[in-house]
């Protein structure tokens, strides 16, 4: 049954070398395995597969969220490493210092080197 099977997130990359540099040198992920032209990272016990495709960066939705304990600290750390966060100001979503709060969470979004939208999220009591 799928409810008991591990699930793997996929992150598309149009330039795998550039994407690896971003995820390894900027974000700080460690490669666990290299195969099929891509690379596997392990984040909190879950596998993420960065794979080559010309379709990278075409989704307007978030590709993945990292569930963190302190979103402010993660944003500060990633900014110090060179990550640029998105700033939003629209009905239902407004960021302050790159972080939006609402619906029981704090979240901040950034684009990776391939144009994919990624995020860090912290649950907060509502």
Order of strands, main sheet, comes to 1-4-3-2
What's the Cα radius of gyration? 15 Å
* Backbone structural class: alpha+beta
Extended strand count: 10
Q: Please indicate the count of domains.
A: 1
Proportion of β residues?
A: 35-45%
CATH superfamily: 2,3-Dihydroxybiphenyl 1,2-Dioxygenase, domain 1
Q: Please name the CATH topology.
A: 2,3-Dihydroxybiphenyl 1,2-Dioxygenase, domain 1
Q: Low-confidence runs (pLDDT<50, min 5 residues)?
A: none
Total helix count? 2
CATH uppermost class: Alpha Beta
Major sheet description: 4 strands, mixed
| N/C terminus separation | 33 Å
The CATH architecture assignment turns out to be Roll
The ordered H/E elements are EHEEEEHEEEEE
Mean pLDDT: 95
* Helix fraction bin: 10-25%
Query: What does the overall shape look like?
Result: globular
Notes on the protein architecture:
- This protein is of the alpha+beta class and 126 residues long.
- The chain has a single domain, classed as Roll (2,3-Dihydroxybiphenyl 1,2-Dioxygenase, domain 1), CATH 3.10.180.
- Helix content is 17%, strand content 40%.
- The protein contains two helices and ten strands, in the order E-H-E-E-E-E-H-E-E-E-E-E.
- The chain has helices spanning 16-27, 71-80, and strands spanning 9-13, 31-35, 38-43, 46-52, 62-67, 89-90, 93-94, 100-102, 105-111, 117-123.
- It has a four-stranded mixed beta sheet with strand order 1-4-3-2, covered by helices on one side.
- Strand 8 (100-102) and strand 9 form a beta hairpin.
- The longest helix has 12 residues, at 16-27.
- The model has no long low-confidence stretch (mean pLDDT 95).
């Amino acid at each position: 049954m799928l409810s008991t099977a591990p699930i793997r997130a996929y992150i598309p990359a149009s330039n795998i070398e550039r994407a690896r540099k971003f995820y390894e040198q900027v974000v700080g992920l460690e490669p666990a395995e290299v195969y099929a032209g891509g690379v596997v990272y392990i984040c909190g016990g879950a596998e993420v597969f960065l794979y080559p495709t010309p379709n990278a960066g075409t989704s307007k939705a978030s590709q993945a969220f990292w569930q963190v304990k302190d979103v402010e600290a993660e944003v500060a750390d990633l900014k110090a490493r060179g990550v640029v966060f998105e700033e939003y100001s629209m009905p239902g979503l407004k960021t302050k210092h790159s972080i939006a709060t609402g619906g029981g969470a704090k979240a901040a979004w950034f684009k990776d080197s391939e144009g994919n939208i990624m995020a860090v999220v912290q649950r907060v009591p509502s």
